[in-house]
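Q: Could you fold this chain for me?
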Amino acid sequence: MTVYWGIIGAGKIAESQMAPAIATASGHELVAVSRRTLDAAQQFAVRHGAQRAYDSVEALLKDDQVSAVYVATPPHLHARETVLAAEAGKHVLCEKPMARTTGEAREMIDACRAGGVMLTICHYQRFNARHQRIRRLLEEGAIGQVTAARINFSDRFPPQPGVWHHDPRISGGGPVMDLGIHCIDLLRFLCGPAESVSALVETLVDSSPVADTATLLMRLANGTQAVVTSHWTTANHEPERANGLEIWGTKGSIAAAPISAKDSAGTLRVLTEYGMQDYLVEPGGPRPHVALLDAFGDAVAGESPNPIPGEDGLAGLAVVEAAYESARRGQRVEVQ
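A: Sure. Below is the predicted structure, expressed as structure tokens.
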């Protein structure tokens, strides 16, 4: 079975990651793209072998060959475009953050359920080969009962002309929505859902409508205590080390970095009473976006479950909203 893709928002992330992944993955074909300007859409289509280009979402969704769409527009458009796709009978792979609010996320889930189509969220870090190994190690009890975890995903990212991330009407928030949402989802994948959160979400450096520095202390449903740090205010001259995760248990620990590698490249170290084991993935390793597409195609064919359902994206946004509420109230907040 071939999944015939249309890309909604053929911009930077589609250019560098998803279009090449579609070209690489078996059983996937890019047939149509849309951008606000037809010329830009046509140029993208030529670069990536798509047959047709459109200057509107509505036009692309009328394309009968398209069976699934990748929504890669800014977050304020995700809900509308996902609902339109569901009404047109197209399966949806939506970029993170899924939406600006949990309310928008629920609208997306309801629309896809009503349309009988699949909604998957592009939390690609679950498919990093090192993170897949970590999940297997945890399931095998390699470090005993997990009691603590920490993930950092930060960089220096001041406001820039023409960049929408600092506009809350478009992005929904600052680094928690941009980078922290990855950490929250990765914790859910590896250690389980969050139950409550205490947070500092503040503007420390830049004059911006959104906060630029955030630290979340979460209690997971299994009792694990987890810390997520997500900043736009920290110069990151060594991302291959700084943007990483650590998980501690009663019998050992696991450390991996970087969490964001688009080819799974990086380090993974397991330390127990039996010694230290290192797992290194060299540059050019397994691409998470390709693995995600493989899982998406299997799910569309009915051969496996939806790899990252909309409900998981909704759960991440619920943690973000609880973090903002905690920061406002100065106390721990239960995740709804």
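A (continued): The two ends are 38 Å apart (CA to CA).
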